[in-house]
Design brief:
By secondary structure, this protein is an alpha/beta fold. The protein has one domain (46-392): Rossmann fold, CATH 3.40.50.1820. 32% of the residues lie in helices and 18% in strands. The protein contains eleven helices and nine strands. It has helices at 2-19, 51-71, 92-95, 155-160, 190-193, 201-216, 234-245, 273-279, 302-307, 327-343, 379-392, and strands at residues 80-91, 97-108, 111-122, 130-135, 164-169, 227-232, 251-255, 314-319, 366-371. The protein has a nine-stranded mixed β-sheet with strand order 1-2-3-5-4-6-7-8-9, sandwiched between helices. Mean pLDDT is 94; it is low at 1-20.
Length: 394
């Protein structure tokens, strides 16, 4: 019942936002012509023809463009970090898994923030890879006792597949509220809160994922070189930004992440930059608001964010009834990112046009599916993530 209430409130919030925007476009025929920034052309106009030019110049340019115009700066320094195992159960899930509860405390300038990590590790496999969920739903969805089980975080299915599964909650890093989002990681970085290109909530959640990875690198029971960062909706936006910033993540999975996640902004289909900045002003840097109702002026688009993850595997998804998140725009962003993967000798694996609903394409490093249903992350999605992980978390 708790999960149902939490999900219903999320749906109600989205419905209220849509109701206040009568001019939202859901008609492909009304998508106006748009021009995407060229991912393989430098700011100075140089064509990027090798992975060396990409690595040394263009990738760095794009990363800074996203920092300055969308997600804000990503702080990399802190004074110290401590890991405390606060709970342990070596016979979790009927003896099939180990459960660790870990407090990750990060210190800077006499302030600290604590990230509470849950980690289930299968006993059937030595040093497994890990699916790390950035949980933006109610904490009951990631119940360590397993008295409440949710498809949003299907511990048992993932453990039985031979992978570890972990999660932390976004509220530990930045409460998802415009009035209290600074009561977390931003206490460590007050200079970010006053900067026009400063980190906000999405950036704080991504920063937190990297601190969790700092811990995972010390855990001898898992393979920290095989960690997939996973997120749904706003969590999917943070997962993409985390993987773009932190190349230690071996894989990125972004489920129904929509605007400012995996979908193209310049298509102006479904949610727009103006809508998301108005409804959630605490998610992105203040500079992003310059592009409200002016997506065409953006110096970046989301195909470029996905490109920053290359050559690592990336999987983005949609749901058939979630037009708000623009399934076609998500597919096109992935498709346009493939040219960067080609620099690494990785041939395009996506078809020229979006695949049929419930026909996942996850046998290539740039993967996609659009499943039947609504804006959510369910067992169908996770089963395909596991298939993807078995192919590429090697």
């Amino acid at each position: 019942m708790k999960h149902f209430i939490s999900f219903s409130l999320a749906v109600l919030m989205c419905s209220m936002v849509v109701a206040q925007q009568p001019n939202v476009n859901y008609d492909e025929h009304k998508v106006k012509p748009y021009t995407l920034p060229q991912v393989l052309k430098t700011n100075g106009g140089r064509q990027v023809t090798t992975k060396e030019i990409w690595e040394k110049q263009r990738r760095r340019e794009i990363l800074k463009l996203f920092e300055d115009n969308v997600y804000g700066q990503m702080p990399h320094s802190f004074d110290s970090i401590n890991f405390t195992v606060s709970g342990k159960n070596n016979s979790a899930y009927n003896g099939r898994a180990k459960l660790k509860e870990v407090d990750i405390e990060v210190f800077r300038n006499s302030q600290s923030v604590v990230i509470h990590l849950l980690l289930f590790i299968p006993k059937s496999k030595s040093k497994p890879g890990v699916f790390l969920l950035i949980n933006n739903r109610g904490k009951e969805n990631t119940d360590a006792t397993r008295q409440t089980k949710s498809e949003f975080w299907p511990v048992e299915m993932v453990v039985d597949s031979g992978f570890a599964i972990a999660s932390f909650h976004v509220s530990d890093l930045a409460p998802d509220n415009k009035d209290s989002f600074t009561n977390g990681a931003l206490r460590l970085y007050p200079e970010q809160a006053s900067a026009e290109n400063g980190m906000r909530a999405i950036g704080a959640w991504a920063w937190g994922a990297s601190r969790v990875l700092d811990y995972l690198e010390t855990d001898k029971d898992i393979d920290a070189k095989k960690v997939a960062v996973v997120g749904h909706s706003r969590g999917g936006k943070a997962a993409l930004w985390a993987a773009a910033q932190d190349r230690r993540f071996a894989m990125c999975i972004s489920n129904c992440s929509g605007n400012s996640g995996a979908k193209l902004s310049k298509r102006n289909f479904g949610e727009t930059v103006a809508i998301i900045n108005t409804a959630f002003p605490h998610w992105f840097s203040p500079n992003y608001k310059k592009y409200n109702d002016d997506e065409q002026a953006l110096p970046v688009d989301q195909h470029m964010l996905i490109s920053l993850i290359a050559p690592r595997p990336v999987y983005a998804t949609n749901a058939s009834e979630d037009l708000w998140a623009d399934p076609t725009g998500t597919f096109l962003a992935l498709k346009h990112a493939e040219e960067v993967y080609e620099l690494y000798g990785i041939k395009p694996g996506l078809p020229m046009h979006p695949p049929a609903i419930d026909h996942p394409v996850n046998n290539s490093r740039v993967a996609y599916h659009n499943r039947t249903g609504i804006h959510n992350m369910i067992i169908y999605d996770w089963r395909n993530f596991v298939v993807f992980g078995k192919r590429f978390l090697k």
